[in-house]
Design goal:
The chain is α+β, with helices and mostly antiparallel strands and about 140 residues long. It contains six helices and six strands; from the N terminus they run ααααββββββαα. The chain folds into two domains: about 55 residues; about 60 residues, no CATH class. A four-stranded antiparallel β-sheet has the order 3-4-5-6, covered by helices on one side. Strands 1-2 form a two-stranded antiparallel sheet. Helix 1 packs antiparallel against helix 3 and helix 2 packs parallel to helix 3. The chain starts with a helix and ends in an 8-residue tail after the last helix.
């Protein structure tokens, strides 16, 4: 519990430091000089470093999932099986029972009817009422109907 108390005291001290003291603290904590950053950002960065040093880092797989969730990773780009990421702005269009189905790729997924879906297959299922391979439904596979 003493480590947690020491960490809490260090974090509270950050709020009282001047910009010059924050830059020095950053340099002392990381061994790297930071040329320009707002005092607020420096406080957050130093707090993060202190917490990692005291409590340990998150496992890599959790960091990766958090990056995906927060949109901080290329891994968040929508993907198609065996084809890799699809660039935002790409449109998939298909006619189904006399209706045109147009899907827009965004950074968060596939948008159709003002809703975002994780996959083309989810959209194909909504459109048809049956399970479909999304890439196949939109004609991206050789066996498209």
């Amino acid at each position: 519990m003493a480590r947690a108390d020491e960490l809490d005291a260090e974090l509270q001290t950050l709020a009282t430091l001047s910009p010059a003291q924050l830059r020095q603290s950053w340099s002392d904590t990381t061994g790297v000089n930071l040329p320009h950053a707002s005092p607020s950002l420096l406080r957050h960065l130093i707090a993060h470093q202190l917490q990692e040093k005291t409590l340990g880092k998150l496992p890599t797989y959790i960091e990766r999932e958090l990056d995906k969730f927060c949109g901080n990773s290329d891994a968040t780009a929508p993907t198609l099986p065996r084809r890799g990421p699809v660039l935002p702005g790409t449109r998939f269009v298909r006619e189904w029972n006399g209706k045109t189905i147009a899907v827009q790729v965004t950074e968060k997924g596939f948008e159709w009817n003002n809703e975002t879906y994780r996959s083309l297959s989810e959209i194909a299922c909504k459109v048809t009422g049956a399970h479909w391979s999304g890439p196949r439904f939109f004609g991206l596979n050789a066996k498209a109907t």
